[in-house]
Protein backbone atom coordinates (compact mmCIF):
# COMPACT_ATOMS: atom_id res chain seq x y z
CA UNK A 1 0.00 0.00 0.00
CA UNK A 2 1.30 3.42 -0.95
CA UNK A 3 2.20 5.89 1.79
CA UNK A 4 2.01 9.68 1.69
CA UNK A 5 4.51 11.20 -0.69
CA UNK A 6 4.99 8.04 -2.77
CA UNK A 7 4.84 8.11 -6.61
CA UNK A 8 1.51 6.26 -6.52
CA UNK A 9 0.02 9.01 -4.37
CA UNK A 10 1.33 11.64 -6.79
CA UNK A 11 -0.27 9.84 -9.77
CA UNK A 12 -3.62 9.64 -8.01
CA UNK A 13 -3.46 13.35 -7.29
CA UNK A 14 -2.85 14.03 -10.96
CA UNK A 15 -5.75 11.77 -11.93
CA UNK A 16 -8.02 13.60 -9.50
CA UNK A 17 -6.84 16.92 -10.89
CA UNK A 18 -7.54 15.75 -14.45
CA UNK A 19 -11.04 14.63 -13.53
CA UNK A 20 -11.71 17.99 -11.89
CA UNK A 21 -10.47 19.93 -14.93
CA UNK A 22 -12.55 17.86 -17.36
CA UNK A 23 -15.66 18.22 -15.25
CA UNK A 24 -15.07 21.97 -15.06
CA UNK A 25 -14.76 22.06 -18.86
CA UNK A 26 -18.05 20.16 -19.22
CA UNK A 27 -19.86 22.48 -16.83
CA UNK A 28 -18.56 25.63 -18.52
CA UNK A 29 -16.85 28.62 -16.93
CA UNK A 30 -20.03 30.25 -15.60
CA UNK A 31 -23.13 28.49 -14.19
CA UNK A 32 -25.15 31.60 -15.02
CA UNK A 33 -24.32 31.11 -18.72
CA UNK A 34 -25.92 27.68 -18.61
CA UNK A 35 -29.02 29.17 -17.01
CA UNK A 36 -29.18 31.85 -19.70
CA UNK A 37 -28.93 29.18 -22.41
CA UNK A 38 -31.77 27.19 -20.86
CA UNK A 39 -33.90 30.32 -20.36
CA UNK A 40 -33.86 30.82 -24.14
CA UNK A 41 -35.21 27.30 -24.65
CA UNK A 42 -31.80 26.10 -25.82
CA UNK A 43 -29.71 23.15 -24.68
CA UNK A 44 -25.98 23.22 -24.01
CA UNK A 45 -23.49 21.70 -26.45
CA UNK A 46 -23.00 18.65 -24.20
CA UNK A 47 -26.76 18.13 -23.83
CA UNK A 48 -27.23 18.26 -27.59
CA UNK A 49 -24.47 15.74 -28.20
CA UNK A 50 -26.03 13.45 -25.61
CA UNK A 51 -29.32 13.56 -27.56
CA UNK A 52 -27.61 12.90 -30.89
CA UNK A 53 -25.31 10.02 -29.97
CA UNK A 54 -26.01 6.62 -28.45
CA UNK A 55 -25.76 6.71 -24.66
CA UNK A 56 -22.19 6.51 -23.39
CA UNK A 57 -20.63 6.45 -26.87
CA UNK A 58 -19.14 9.96 -27.05
CA UNK A 59 -15.36 10.31 -27.24
CA UNK A 60 -14.28 13.93 -26.93
CA UNK A 61 -11.27 15.30 -28.79
CA UNK A 62 -9.21 18.21 -27.41
CA UNK A 63 -11.46 19.06 -24.45
CA UNK A 64 -8.55 20.93 -22.80
CA UNK A 65 -7.72 23.14 -25.80
CA UNK A 66 -7.31 26.86 -25.05
CA UNK A 67 -6.71 29.82 -27.33
CA UNK A 68 -3.37 31.63 -27.42
CA UNK A 69 -4.69 35.03 -28.46
CA UNK A 70 -4.02 38.24 -26.58
CA UNK A 71 -5.38 41.74 -26.62
CA UNK A 72 -8.88 43.09 -25.97
CA UNK A 73 -8.94 41.14 -22.69
CA UNK A 74 -8.57 37.70 -24.30
CA UNK A 75 -5.39 36.95 -22.35
CA UNK A 76 -7.49 36.94 -19.17
CA UNK A 77 -10.16 34.64 -20.57
CA UNK A 78 -8.88 31.23 -21.61
CA UNK A 79 -11.63 28.69 -20.91
CA UNK A 80 -11.15 25.03 -21.74
CA UNK A 81 -12.64 23.81 -25.07
CA UNK A 82 -12.49 27.35 -26.51
CA UNK A 83 -16.20 27.32 -27.24
CA UNK A 84 -16.58 24.17 -29.32
CA UNK A 85 -16.99 20.51 -28.31
CA UNK A 86 -15.65 17.98 -30.83
CA UNK A 87 -15.45 14.20 -30.99
CA UNK A 88 -17.09 11.03 -32.22
CA UNK A 89 -19.60 8.45 -31.06
CA UNK A 90 -22.27 6.21 -32.54
CA UNK A 91 -25.82 6.64 -33.83
CA UNK A 92 -27.73 3.35 -33.93
CA UNK A 93 -24.36 1.66 -33.43
CA UNK A 94 -22.61 3.32 -36.39
CA UNK A 95 -19.75 5.82 -36.08
CA UNK A 96 -20.61 9.52 -36.45
CA UNK A 97 -18.36 12.55 -35.93
CA UNK A 98 -19.72 15.73 -34.38
CA UNK A 99 -18.81 19.25 -33.39
CA UNK A 100 -21.05 21.53 -31.33
CA UNK A 101 -20.60 25.23 -30.67
CA UNK A 102 -20.83 26.13 -26.98
CA UNK A 103 -22.67 29.45 -26.88
CA UNK A 104 -21.77 29.86 -23.21
CA UNK A 105 -18.13 30.51 -24.18
CA UNK A 106 -17.49 33.63 -26.29
CA UNK A 107 -21.01 33.21 -27.69
CA UNK A 108 -19.73 30.23 -29.66
CA UNK A 109 -17.66 32.62 -31.79
CA UNK A 110 -14.92 31.06 -33.89
CA UNK A 111 -11.28 31.85 -33.21
CA UNK A 112 -8.02 30.19 -34.28
CA UNK A 113 -8.00 27.36 -31.72
CA UNK A 114 -11.74 26.86 -32.08
CA UNK A 115 -11.34 26.50 -35.86
CA UNK A 116 -8.40 24.13 -35.58
CA UNK A 117 -10.49 21.80 -33.42
CA UNK A 118 -13.20 21.75 -36.07
CA UNK A 119 -10.64 21.21 -38.84
CA UNK A 120 -9.21 18.23 -36.97
CA UNK A 121 -12.58 16.53 -36.45
CA UNK A 122 -13.52 17.13 -40.10
CA UNK A 123 -10.24 15.56 -41.20
CA UNK A 124 -10.86 12.58 -38.93
CA UNK A 125 -14.38 12.12 -40.31
CA UNK A 126 -13.09 12.09 -43.86
CA UNK A 127 -10.23 9.72 -43.00
CA UNK A 128 -12.53 7.34 -41.11
CA UNK A 129 -15.24 7.50 -43.77
CA UNK A 130 -18.04 8.43 -41.37
CA UNK A 131 -20.78 11.10 -41.38
CA UNK A 132 -20.17 14.53 -39.88
CA UNK A 133 -22.84 16.42 -37.93
CA UNK A 134 -22.36 20.05 -36.91
CA UNK A 135 -24.51 21.46 -34.11
CA UNK A 136 -24.38 25.17 -34.88
CA UNK A 137 -24.97 27.85 -32.26
CA UNK A 138 -22.33 30.52 -32.75
CA UNK A 139 -21.98 34.26 -33.11
CA UNK A 140 -19.70 34.11 -36.14
CA UNK A 141 -16.04 35.06 -36.27
CA UNK A 142 -14.34 36.11 -33.04
CA UNK A 143 -13.79 39.79 -33.75
CA UNK A 144 -10.92 40.11 -31.25
CA UNK A 145 -8.83 37.64 -33.30
CA UNK A 146 -9.31 39.48 -36.59
CA UNK A 147 -8.36 37.88 -39.88
CA UNK A 148 -7.12 34.72 -38.13
CA UNK A 149 -10.73 33.87 -37.33
CA UNK A 150 -11.76 34.45 -40.95
CA UNK A 151 -9.02 32.10 -42.12
CA UNK A 152 -10.46 29.49 -39.79
CA UNK A 153 -13.75 29.65 -41.69
CA UNK A 154 -11.86 29.24 -44.95
CA UNK A 155 -10.44 25.97 -43.66
CA UNK A 156 -13.93 24.74 -42.78
CA UNK A 157 -15.33 25.64 -46.22
CA UNK A 158 -12.45 23.91 -47.95
CA UNK A 159 -13.05 20.73 -45.96
CA UNK A 160 -16.82 20.89 -46.54
CA UNK A 161 -16.13 20.96 -50.26
CA UNK A 162 -13.49 18.24 -50.17
CA UNK A 163 -15.80 15.90 -48.26
CA UNK A 164 -18.81 16.63 -50.49
CA UNK A 165 -19.97 13.37 -52.02
CA UNK A 166 -17.49 11.46 -49.84
CA UNK A 167 -19.22 11.44 -46.43
CA UNK A 168 -22.70 12.69 -45.51
CA UNK A 169 -22.54 16.15 -43.93
CA UNK A 170 -25.46 17.42 -41.84
CA UNK A 171 -25.80 20.91 -40.36
CA UNK A 172 -28.16 21.42 -37.42
CA UNK A 173 -28.93 25.07 -36.78
CA UNK A 174 -29.70 25.63 -33.10
CA UNK A 175 -28.87 29.31 -32.73
CA UNK A 176 -27.70 32.29 -34.80
CA UNK A 177 -25.55 31.84 -37.90
CA UNK A 178 -24.66 35.09 -39.63
CA UNK A 179 -22.27 36.39 -42.25
CA UNK A 180 -19.72 34.11 -43.84
CA UNK A 181 -20.44 31.43 -41.24
CA UNK A 182 -23.69 30.64 -43.09
CA UNK A 183 -21.76 29.25 -46.04
CA UNK A 184 -20.62 26.12 -44.22
CA UNK A 185 -24.20 24.84 -43.73
CA UNK A 186 -24.94 25.82 -47.34
CA UNK A 187 -22.10 23.55 -48.49
CA UNK A 188 -23.38 20.52 -46.55
CA UNK A 189 -25.93 17.94 -47.67
CA UNK A 190 -28.79 18.66 -45.26
CA UNK A 191 -29.73 21.62 -43.05
CA UNK A 192 -32.02 21.27 -40.02
CA UNK A 193 -33.42 24.32 -38.19
CA UNK A 194 -35.40 24.97 -35.00
CA UNK A 195 -38.12 27.61 -35.01
CA UNK A 196 -37.65 30.82 -32.99
CA UNK A 197 -34.13 29.99 -31.78
CA UNK A 198 -32.18 29.51 -35.04
CA UNK A 199 -31.59 32.07 -37.77
CA UNK A 200 -29.35 32.25 -40.84
CA UNK A 201 -28.52 35.32 -42.89
CA UNK A 202 -25.57 36.96 -44.61
CA UNK A 203 -26.47 40.46 -43.40
CA UNK A 204 -28.65 40.96 -40.33
CA UNK A 205 -31.76 43.12 -39.88
CA UNK A 206 -29.75 46.18 -38.78
CA UNK A 207 -27.62 46.13 -41.93
CA UNK A 208 -30.66 45.53 -44.11
CA UNK A 209 -32.40 48.53 -42.57
CA UNK A 210 -29.33 50.74 -42.94
CA UNK A 211 -28.84 49.86 -46.60
CA UNK A 212 -32.39 49.39 -47.90
CA UNK A 213 -34.60 51.02 -45.27
CA UNK A 214 -36.52 47.75 -44.80
CA UNK A 215 -37.42 46.79 -41.25
CA UNK A 216 -37.62 43.07 -40.47
CA UNK A 217 -37.09 40.78 -37.49
CA UNK A 218 -34.36 38.16 -37.30
CA UNK A 219 -36.87 35.33 -37.76
CA UNK A 220 -38.62 37.21 -40.55
CA UNK A 221 -35.31 37.60 -42.36
CA UNK A 222 -33.71 34.21 -41.76
CA UNK A 223 -35.80 32.04 -39.45
CA UNK A 224 -36.56 28.35 -39.83
CA UNK A 225 -39.87 28.78 -41.64
CA UNK A 226 -38.41 31.32 -44.06
CA UNK A 227 -35.55 29.04 -45.04
CA UNK A 228 -37.61 25.83 -45.15
CA UNK A 229 -40.50 27.24 -47.20
CA UNK A 230 -39.26 30.32 -49.08
CA UNK A 231 -35.50 30.26 -49.73
CA UNK A 232 -34.98 26.50 -49.69
CA UNK A 233 -31.79 26.87 -47.63
CA UNK A 234 -33.11 24.59 -44.87
CA UNK A 235 -34.45 21.11 -45.57
CA UNK A 236 -36.32 20.67 -42.27
CA UNK A 237 -37.87 22.86 -39.54
CA UNK A 238 -38.94 21.83 -36.01
CA UNK A 239 -40.50 23.31 -32.91
CA UNK A 240 -38.01 21.83 -30.45
CA UNK A 241 -34.38 20.77 -30.39
CA UNK A 242 -35.37 17.30 -29.19
CA UNK A 243 -37.63 16.69 -32.22
CA UNK A 244 -34.98 18.08 -34.54
CA UNK A 245 -32.13 15.93 -33.26
CA UNK A 246 -34.32 12.80 -33.22
CA UNK A 247 -34.93 13.24 -36.95
CA UNK A 248 -31.20 13.78 -37.53
CA UNK A 249 -30.68 10.35 -35.96
CA UNK A 250 -33.38 8.89 -38.21
CA UNK A 251 -31.87 10.39 -41.35
CA UNK A 252 -28.46 8.98 -40.41
CA UNK A 253 -30.03 5.52 -40.11
CA UNK A 254 -31.02 5.75 -43.79
CA UNK A 255 -27.66 6.88 -45.13
CA UNK A 256 -24.44 5.00 -45.85
CA UNK A 257 -21.35 5.92 -43.87
CA UNK A 258 -19.56 7.09 -47.01
CA UNK A 259 -19.57 6.89 -50.80
CA UNK A 260 -17.95 3.44 -50.84
CA UNK A 261 -20.69 1.76 -48.84
CA UNK A 262 -24.41 1.06 -49.15
CA UNK A 263 -27.13 2.15 -46.77
CA UNK A 264 -28.01 -0.30 -43.97
CA UNK A 265 -30.60 -2.92 -44.91
CA UNK A 266 -33.49 -3.25 -42.47
CA UNK A 267 -36.12 -5.68 -43.66
CA UNK A 268 -39.59 -5.52 -42.20
CA UNK A 269 -42.50 -7.91 -42.27
CA UNK A 270 -44.05 -6.08 -45.24
CA UNK A 271 -44.43 -8.74 -47.99
CA UNK A 272 -42.47 -8.20 -51.19
CA UNK A 273 -45.45 -9.28 -53.29
CA UNK A 274 -48.05 -7.19 -51.44
CA UNK A 275 -50.77 -6.14 -53.89
CA UNK A 276 -51.50 -2.40 -54.09
CA UNK A 277 -55.26 -2.44 -54.62
CA UNK A 278 -55.56 1.01 -53.04
CA UNK A 279 -53.71 2.59 -55.98
CA UNK A 280 -56.71 2.05 -58.24
CA UNK A 281 -58.66 4.56 -56.14
CA UNK A 282 -55.81 6.90 -55.13
CA UNK A 283 -54.93 8.02 -58.68
CA UNK A 284 -57.86 9.42 -60.72
CA UNK A 285 -57.94 8.45 -64.39
CA UNK A 286 -58.67 12.01 -65.50
CA UNK A 287 -55.41 13.79 -66.34
CA UNK A 288 -56.58 17.05 -64.79
CA UNK A 289 -57.74 15.69 -61.44
CA UNK A 290 -55.56 16.34 -58.41
CA UNK A 291 -54.37 13.76 -55.87
CA UNK A 292 -51.61 13.50 -53.27
CA UNK A 293 -48.60 11.60 -54.61
CA UNK A 294 -47.43 11.02 -51.03
CA UNK A 295 -50.30 8.58 -50.56
CA UNK A 296 -49.01 6.61 -53.56
CA UNK A 297 -45.53 6.53 -52.02
CA UNK A 298 -46.97 5.46 -48.69
CA UNK A 299 -48.87 2.61 -50.33
CA UNK A 300 -45.84 1.22 -52.17
CA UNK A 301 -42.90 1.48 -49.72
CA UNK A 302 -42.14 -0.74 -46.72
CA UNK A 303 -44.69 -0.23 -43.93
CA UNK A 304 -45.81 3.05 -45.52
CA UNK A 305 -42.77 4.74 -43.99
CA UNK A 306 -40.89 7.48 -45.86
CA UNK A 307 -38.80 10.53 -44.91
CA UNK A 308 -39.56 13.57 -47.04
CA UNK A 309 -36.81 16.10 -47.77
CA UNK A 310 -37.75 19.79 -48.21
CA UNK A 311 -41.44 19.09 -47.44
CA UNK A 312 -42.35 22.80 -47.28
CA UNK A 313 -40.37 24.12 -50.28
CA UNK A 314 -41.15 23.55 -53.97
CA UNK A 315 -44.13 21.43 -52.98
CA UNK A 316 -44.93 20.59 -56.61
CA UNK A 317 -42.24 17.91 -56.43
CA UNK A 318 -41.70 15.38 -53.65
CA UNK A 319 -38.26 14.03 -52.72
CA UNK A 320 -38.08 11.31 -50.07
CA UNK A 321 -36.07 8.44 -48.70
CA UNK A 322 -37.84 5.14 -48.11
CA UNK A 323 -37.18 1.41 -48.08
CA UNK A 324 -38.27 -1.28 -50.53
CA UNK A 325 -37.66 -4.80 -49.21
CA UNK A 326 -35.41 -3.21 -46.59
CA UNK A 327 -33.16 -1.41 -49.09
CA UNK A 328 -33.04 2.39 -49.04
CA UNK A 329 -34.19 4.20 -52.19
CA UNK A 330 -34.55 7.83 -53.15
CA UNK A 331 -37.94 8.77 -54.57
CA UNK A 332 -38.56 11.76 -56.83
CA UNK A 333 -42.21 12.36 -57.69
CA UNK A 334 -44.32 15.05 -59.30
CA UNK A 335 -47.04 16.28 -56.93
CA UNK A 336 -50.39 16.86 -58.73
CA UNK A 337 -51.83 18.27 -55.49
CA UNK A 338 -49.56 21.33 -55.81
CA UNK A 339 -49.52 23.42 -59.00
CA UNK A 340 -50.75 20.31 -60.86
CA UNK A 341 -47.25 18.85 -60.46
CA UNK A 342 -45.73 21.21 -63.00
CA UNK A 343 -41.94 21.65 -63.02
CA UNK A 344 -40.65 25.13 -62.22
CA UNK A 345 -37.36 26.67 -61.14
CA UNK A 346 -37.58 25.65 -57.48
CA UNK A 347 -38.83 22.13 -58.19
CA UNK A 348 -36.02 21.59 -60.69
CA UNK A 349 -33.34 22.72 -58.24
CA UNK A 350 -34.84 20.71 -55.39
CA UNK A 351 -35.01 17.56 -57.50
CA UNK A 352 -31.52 18.05 -58.92
CA UNK A 353 -29.90 18.41 -55.51
CA UNK A 354 -31.65 15.28 -54.24
CA UNK A 355 -30.74 13.22 -57.32
CA UNK A 356 -27.10 14.29 -57.00
CA UNK A 357 -26.99 13.27 -53.34
CA UNK A 358 -28.50 9.85 -54.03
CA UNK A 359 -26.09 9.26 -56.89
CA UNK A 360 -23.09 10.29 -54.78
CA UNK A 361 -24.04 7.84 -52.01
CA UNK A 362 -25.15 4.78 -53.99
CA UNK A 363 -28.88 5.19 -53.32
CA UNK A 364 -31.08 3.88 -56.19
CA UNK A 365 -33.60 6.31 -57.67
CA UNK A 366 -37.31 5.72 -58.24
CA UNK A 367 -39.04 8.46 -60.27
CA UNK A 368 -42.83 8.66 -60.23
CA UNK A 369 -43.98 10.72 -63.20
CA UNK A 370 -47.21 12.68 -63.56
CA UNK A 371 -46.14 15.98 -65.08
CA UNK A 372 -47.98 18.39 -67.39
CA UNK A 373 -44.82 20.24 -68.43
CA UNK A 374 -42.70 23.19 -67.33
CA UNK A 375 -44.40 26.20 -65.78
CA UNK A 376 -44.92 28.95 -68.38
CA UNK A 377 -44.52 32.61 -67.47
CA UNK A 378 -42.38 35.70 -67.85
CA UNK A 379 -40.98 35.39 -64.31
CA UNK A 380 -39.89 31.81 -64.93
CA UNK A 381 -38.18 32.67 -68.21
CA UNK A 382 -36.50 35.81 -66.89
CA UNK A 383 -35.31 34.04 -63.74
CA UNK A 384 -33.62 31.31 -65.76
CA UNK A 385 -35.95 28.31 -66.08
CA UNK A 386 -33.79 27.13 -69.01
CA UNK A 387 -30.55 27.31 -67.06
CA UNK A 388 -31.96 26.19 -63.73
CA UNK A 389 -34.35 23.60 -65.13
CA UNK A 390 -31.33 22.05 -66.84
CA UNK A 391 -29.92 21.24 -63.41
CA UNK A 392 -32.45 18.43 -62.98
CA UNK A 393 -31.73 17.13 -66.46
CA UNK A 394 -27.97 17.22 -65.82
CA UNK A 395 -28.33 15.46 -62.47
CA UNK A 396 -30.29 12.56 -63.96
CA UNK A 397 -28.05 12.24 -67.03
CA UNK A 398 -24.99 12.17 -64.79
CA UNK A 399 -26.37 9.60 -62.31
CA UNK A 400 -24.96 6.07 -62.44
CA UNK A 401 -26.99 4.46 -59.63
CA UNK A 402 -29.90 2.13 -60.53
CA UNK A 403 -32.69 4.29 -61.99
CA UNK A 404 -36.30 3.27 -62.53
CA UNK A 405 -38.98 5.64 -63.82
CA UNK A 406 -42.72 4.96 -63.67
CA UNK A 407 -45.27 7.05 -65.57
CA UNK A 408 -48.48 7.00 -63.56
CA UNK A 409 -50.57 9.24 -65.73
CA UNK A 410 -49.48 12.14 -67.96
CA UNK A 411 -45.96 12.98 -69.10
CA UNK A 412 -45.84 15.87 -71.54
CA UNK A 413 -43.13 17.65 -73.45
CA UNK A 414 -39.65 18.41 -72.19
CA UNK A 415 -40.74 17.64 -68.64
CA UNK A 416 -41.30 14.00 -69.68
CA UNK A 417 -37.73 13.81 -70.91
CA UNK A 418 -36.29 15.47 -67.81
CA UNK A 419 -38.12 13.20 -65.35
CA UNK A 420 -35.68 10.34 -65.97
CA UNK A 421 -37.08 9.08 -69.24
CA UNK A 422 -35.57 6.12 -71.02
CA UNK A 423 -33.89 8.47 -73.49
CA UNK A 424 -31.70 10.08 -70.80
CA UNK A 425 -30.57 6.84 -69.24
CA UNK A 426 -33.21 5.30 -66.98
CA UNK A 427 -32.37 1.62 -66.59
CA UNK A 428 -36.04 0.67 -66.65
CA UNK A 429 -38.92 2.82 -67.86
CA UNK A 430 -42.32 1.56 -66.74
CA UNK A 431 -45.85 2.89 -67.06
CA UNK A 432 -49.35 2.25 -65.85
CA UNK A 433 -52.07 1.64 -68.47
CA UNK A 434 -53.38 5.14 -67.65
CA UNK A 435 -50.25 6.79 -69.07
CA UNK A 436 -50.37 9.61 -71.60
CA UNK A 437 -46.92 10.37 -73.02
CA UNK A 438 -46.83 13.06 -75.69
CA UNK A 439 -45.32 16.36 -76.77
CA UNK A 440 -48.30 18.10 -75.18
CA UNK A 441 -51.87 17.43 -74.09
CA UNK A 442 -54.34 16.35 -76.76
CA UNK A 443 -56.31 19.60 -76.55
CA UNK A 444 -53.27 21.80 -77.10
CA UNK A 445 -51.89 19.54 -79.82
CA UNK A 446 -55.16 19.51 -81.76
CA UNK A 447 -55.43 23.28 -81.54
CA UNK A 448 -51.94 23.64 -83.05
CA UNK A 449 -52.08 20.93 -85.72
CA UNK A 450 -55.63 21.54 -86.92
CA UNK A 451 -55.93 25.25 -86.21
CA UNK A 452 -56.93 26.29 -89.75
CA UNK A 453 -59.37 23.44 -90.19
CA UNK A 454 -61.04 24.18 -86.86
CA UNK A 455 -61.29 27.90 -87.55
CA UNK A 456 -62.79 27.30 -91.00
CA UNK A 457 -65.36 24.73 -89.88
CA UNK A 458 -69.07 25.49 -89.58
CA UNK A 459 -69.01 23.88 -86.14
CA UNK A 460 -65.47 24.56 -84.79
CA UNK A 461 -66.13 22.92 -81.43
CA UNK A 462 -67.32 19.66 -82.98
CA UNK A 463 -64.28 19.51 -85.25
CA UNK A 464 -62.00 20.31 -82.32
CA UNK A 465 -63.47 17.45 -80.26
CA UNK A 466 -63.12 15.09 -83.22
CA UNK A 467 -59.48 16.00 -83.82
CA UNK A 468 -58.66 15.76 -80.11
CA UNK A 469 -60.05 12.24 -80.03
CA UNK A 470 -58.09 11.32 -83.16
CA UNK A 471 -54.87 12.64 -81.66
CA UNK A 472 -55.45 10.65 -78.48
CA UNK A 473 -56.15 7.46 -80.39
CA UNK A 474 -53.15 7.86 -82.70
CA UNK A 475 -50.39 9.24 -80.49
CA UNK A 476 -51.46 9.09 -76.84
CA UNK A 477 -52.81 5.62 -76.27
CA UNK A 478 -51.20 3.76 -73.35
CA UNK A 479 -49.07 1.48 -75.53
CA UNK A 480 -47.71 4.00 -78.04
CA UNK A 481 -44.40 4.50 -76.20
CA UNK A 482 -44.12 0.78 -75.38
CA UNK A 483 -44.54 -0.17 -79.03
CA UNK A 484 -41.56 2.04 -79.85
CA UNK A 485 -39.33 0.72 -77.08
CA UNK A 486 -39.45 3.92 -75.01
CA UNK A 487 -41.31 2.11 -72.20
CA UNK A 488 -40.00 -1.28 -71.07
CA UNK A 489 -43.34 -2.48 -69.77
CA UNK A 490 -46.86 -1.37 -69.01
CA UNK A 491 -47.74 -2.80 -65.61
CA UNK A 492 -50.82 -3.39 -63.50
CA UNK A 493 -50.84 -0.59 -60.87
CA UNK A 494 -51.67 -3.16 -58.21
CA UNK A 495 -48.30 -4.85 -58.82
CA UNK A 496 -46.24 -1.67 -58.52
CA UNK A 497 -44.51 -2.61 -55.26
CA UNK A 498 -43.49 -6.10 -56.35
CA UNK A 499 -42.33 -4.93 -59.79
CA UNK A 500 -40.15 -2.19 -58.29
CA UNK A 501 -38.60 -4.55 -55.75
CA UNK A 502 -37.81 -7.22 -58.36
CA UNK A 503 -36.38 -4.60 -60.68
CA UNK A 504 -34.16 -3.12 -57.97
CA UNK A 505 -32.89 -6.57 -57.05
CA UNK A 506 -31.86 -7.13 -60.67
CA UNK A 507 -30.08 -3.74 -60.80
CA UNK A 508 -28.34 -4.02 -57.43
CA UNK A 509 -25.01 -5.02 -58.97
CA UNK A 510 -25.18 -2.31 -61.64
CA UNK A 511 -21.83 -0.74 -62.46
CA UNK A 512 -21.47 2.21 -64.77
CA UNK A 513 -18.51 4.52 -65.35
CA UNK A 514 -18.60 8.08 -66.61
CA UNK A 515 -15.99 9.26 -69.14
CA UNK A 516 -12.63 10.19 -67.64
CA UNK A 517 -12.70 13.88 -66.69
CA UNK A 518 -11.76 16.21 -63.88
CA UNK A 519 -15.42 17.13 -63.37
CA UNK A 520 -18.40 18.21 -65.40
CA UNK A 521 -19.62 21.78 -65.76
CA UNK A 522 -23.15 21.58 -64.36
CA UNK A 523 -25.66 24.34 -65.20
CA UNK A 524 -25.71 27.02 -62.50
Automatic annotation (TrEMBL):
> Which SUPFAM superfamilies does the annotation name?
ClpP/crotonase
Q: Does the keyword Ligase apply?
A: yes
Is Ligase there in the keyword field?
Answer: yes
The domain of life is: Bacteria
User: Which Pfam families does this entry report, sorted A to Z?
Assistant: Carboxyl_trans
Q: Which residues form the CoA carboxyltransferase N-terminal domain?
A: 11-267
Q: Name one GO molecular function term.
A: ligase activity
Which E.C. number(s) belong to this protein? 6.-.-.-
Which InterPro entries does this chain map to? AccD/PCCB, AcCoA_carboxyl_beta, ClpP/crotonase-like_dom_sf, COA_CT_C, COA_CT_N
- Gene3D superfamilies cross-referenced by the UniProt entry: 2-enoyl-CoA Hydratase, Chain A, domain 1 (3.90.226.10)
What keywords are annotated for this sequence in UniProt? Ligase
Q: Where is this region: Disordered?
A: 23-42
Please tell me which top-level EC class this enzyme sits in: ligase
Q: Where is the CoA carboxyltransferase C-terminal domain?
A: 271-506
Specify the protein name. Acyl-CoA carboxylase subunit beta
From which organism does this entry originate? Streptomyces roseoviridis
Amino acid sequence: MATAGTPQDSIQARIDELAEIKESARQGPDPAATERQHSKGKLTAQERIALLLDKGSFNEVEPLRRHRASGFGLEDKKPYSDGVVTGWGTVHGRTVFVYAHDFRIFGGALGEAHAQKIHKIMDLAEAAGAPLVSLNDGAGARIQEGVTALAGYGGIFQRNTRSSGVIPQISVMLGPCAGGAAYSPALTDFVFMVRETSQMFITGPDVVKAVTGEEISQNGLGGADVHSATSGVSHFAYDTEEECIEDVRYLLSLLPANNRELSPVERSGDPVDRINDALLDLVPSGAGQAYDIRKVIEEVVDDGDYFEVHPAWATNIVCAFARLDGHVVGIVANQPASMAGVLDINASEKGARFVQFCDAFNIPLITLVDVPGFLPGVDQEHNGIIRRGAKLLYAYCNATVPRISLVLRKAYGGAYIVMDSRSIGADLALAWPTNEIAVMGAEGAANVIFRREINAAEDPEAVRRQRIEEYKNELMHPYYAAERGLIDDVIDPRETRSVLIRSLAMLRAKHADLPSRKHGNAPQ
